[in-house]
Structures
1.
Amino acid sequence: MTRVRWAALAPVAVLLVSAVAGCGQRQAGADGAGKTCTETQSGAGFTIALDYTPCPIRGGQSASAHITVKDSSGAAVTDAAVKVVPDMPSMNMHGGEQDATPNGGGYDSKLVLGMGGDWKVKVVVTRGSAAPAEVTYTLTAK
Ligand SMILES: [Cu+2]
């Protein structure tokens, strides 16, 4: 009899949990969960666009980044080595460096900002034997 009662209550518990989770997901969605933002910086003859999802990035969670690199004539640069280096200057925190992977005319990378706050995200583009090009994006993690 006790077992039957618990079994009858289980769907109620599931409903309660999903109602709470659903509320959180709606808030996250309104806060940019599925949104991609793009920041563009230029340096050393390259124009480097950083797309990141979600926008804003959540501190302590892994975001996904897509980087596109164009040369001074506007042609996509697909043969470079691209590295992503996050730092939080106010706390002297160094984030996890990522080597981006070539994909679809650009480069994919994880982007992990360890906590909420202002971060400097450096993208380093190295092509052949040329000196690396570095650009820095200022991103605020929530
Ligand atoms: Cu910090």
2.
Amino acid sequence: MWDKLWYNASLVDESGTQLTNHAIAVNDSKIAWVGPMEEKLIGNARKTHDCHQRVITPGLIDCHTHLVYAGNRANEFTMRLQGLTYAEIAQAGGGIKSTVKMTRLASEDELLQQALPRLCAMIKQGVTTVEVKSGYGLNACTELKMLRVAKKLENATGMRIKKTFLGAHAIPDEMDADSYIDYLCDDVLPHAYEQELVDAVDIFSESIAFNLAQTEKLLTKAVALGLAIKCHAEQLSDIGASGLAASLGALSCDHLEYISDESLQKMAMHDTVAVLLPGAYYFLKETTPPPITKMRKYGIKMALATDCNPGSSPTTSLSLMMNMACTLFGLTVTEAYQAVTLNAAKALGLSKDIGQLKAGFHADFILWPFTDIAELCYGFGVDYDKQLIVGGTLFSLDSIDSGIK
Ligand SMILES: [Zn+2]
């Protein structure tokens, strides 16, 4: 006997084929069974839900966000529209340093109150798992504060939050890059690790940020602690960071507009996920898209995320990212769907728990108001009236709204 059964549903199988007349059975918080609908199944469950052939997907996964920060940079958007470049704004004290300043000044509760509506906006889009990075502190006190806020967001909403230490997001004014990496390796990361605030370690490897030697040092330290690793790589130029991170066992390399063939081959060899971030590409008006055709050729798994951050991707809409990935990068609907479900789960090291509708997986799924999976990517700026089932239970979006007032 099952607790609950959702039947007459449309599901997408691993190959991307849409299957109609399927059913999902749930016991407690886990999926107990998935298969073709038969009339006799209805008697096997205490509660049943007729889905009328509407699409069910796993709860969506936003696998790359900078969700926790103070203030915003709308003023810089105005400056950019007046013709100033990203670099000119940074030199004028804007850019990431202004967010670091505001985030250092904000209390833990203020950060939580500012991040929570952003998380709620994501949940309203059907996202049930979110990765949250630190990286606007650039000192022990604020980096740990951001990670504690990420942990509190999980308790406040009941969603799954993965915490990524991105102390190496930028070089602080107080130190040079080498001394700062030493400080992160010897002081900040071990403290964050001891306090169980870190699931993975990330670094911004770029000609304007951290070089290959610094990247190797920090990621090697993370691996020695038994932590997963990730890398912001090849967003603005190719320095070979994705190849290095893949060789060290990275779960994912993210951005990748300028990745070389050599690094692509290393990512393929180590089964590292390519996380594509069309929001930043669009907002920065970039013109070199990531090499999707080559990624397909090498069999590299692609994930998609919002990169939610105040500087280069101020969005909470994973749905819009799916549309952009199709229109700007040329992904198919199937690729975009897999990019926010099973491949995003893999980018977070959660392949065995979430991102697929399979027996034994967490019963986090979304019942959409449409019968064609293509609608997931087709509309943009559209907020579908959907049902979230989290841990096998219907999740009330209204309860989140009242929770933040
Ligand atoms: Zn990022």
3.
Amino acid sequence: VYYAEKRILSALPKMIDKASESELKQGFETHFRETEHQVDRLDDVFQKLGVESKSVSCPAIDGIIEEAEDIAGDVSDKNVLDAALIAAAQAVEHYEIARYGTLIAWAKQLGYNDSANILAETLAEEKQTNQKLTNLAEKRINLQAAE
Ligand SMILES: [Fe+2]
């Protein structure tokens, strides 16, 4: 997840750039700042465990982000592009939700409750971001894209 969060940080500015709808753009900007804090939280967890922060490349997130970039490159209509960006961002959020869920369960199992609590803060943000994207898609952006 350390690698994934950093990869997401490097991808989000492009998504902010490509988003047209103002709430979507703002949502990506907010999540960029949240992601910076999420990296800091992971640094805290590494520190608590007494190990150096280390990225191990993750082909899953690379694939999800590559796909997002491909899709964004294929769509010219700005409303359809917004809907596609939401779809791509939700794939990222679901990936993160799966990973953090596992990490929290493992941290608890191993008795690292402080670390589990730190990771749970991030998990809550990822879930909230996913929910905001669903709301935005269903209330507005999918409708505009369909027109
Ligand atoms: Fe994240």
4.
Amino acid sequence: VSSVVPAAVPVKSENTLDLGILEAPLLVFGGPYSNLQATRALGVEVQRRGFDPENVICTGDVVAYCADAQATVDEVRRISAHVVMGNCEESLGLEQDDCGCGFEEGSACDLLSVQWYAKASKALGNEAKAWMRSLPRTITFEMSGRSFAVIHGGAQSISKFVFLSDEERVKQEELGVLGVDAVIGGHCGLPFTQRLATGVWHNAGVIGMPANDGTPRTWFSTLTPSSEGIRFQHHALDYDPIPAARSMERKGLPEAYAKTLLDGLWPNMDVLPESERRVRGTPITPNTLLW
Ligand SMILES: [Fe+2]
């Protein structure tokens, strides 16, 4: 008679949603930021590419700078069955005083966030706020035998910025904490895929604001499994930013961000590392990784 050793069961907190094994391609997007026009355009892309809402994941910050908080929440819930909690969902859902982006007090980001946050909080219904509170902080799944965690910022801090230029050690540590082969992150607003010594860090970018590259393009991504591996691919979202910018102006939202929608340049670079600051205004060439 052999002794029965209980199998190691990974501890999943109530804040983690496990999707199990995914065999179909996945579409990932971040940061709708109350940009209803961009979110609707993404809905068209999702349909055109034949994705079911079950195979779409949003990395959070559904509501932020732009004009249509409530309608954007409704549209994101229609498009995407899975949404990770962003710092904006945490703050608005829990009725906190600010967006929790981690901006320094008195900085330009801080002053601008005060303007949109109050308007967004007022525009959202109780049901939308309850939905925000209910969101998982981590979504896990397996694809082609590799384990993934989708988070907003960092494993332990929802508003941790992780940029391409940040040391690999930092990303490797996050993978370790989460116990996965790859992380899909959001929050920083810039699309990138990085092969690490062991594993991958992927950020789909955001659909609601341009990537500071001097073009009005915004970004989403797809992960496609095949016999050769998983293909990570960024895509520019095809949408007209003019109505989104006009709508912000009409509602008295920060002009600085309405301008960003059109010229593709962030109003300030407080949160950016030196390396990302240097490429301001340089159009992004989307890269593909086969892993
Ligand atoms: Fe965020």
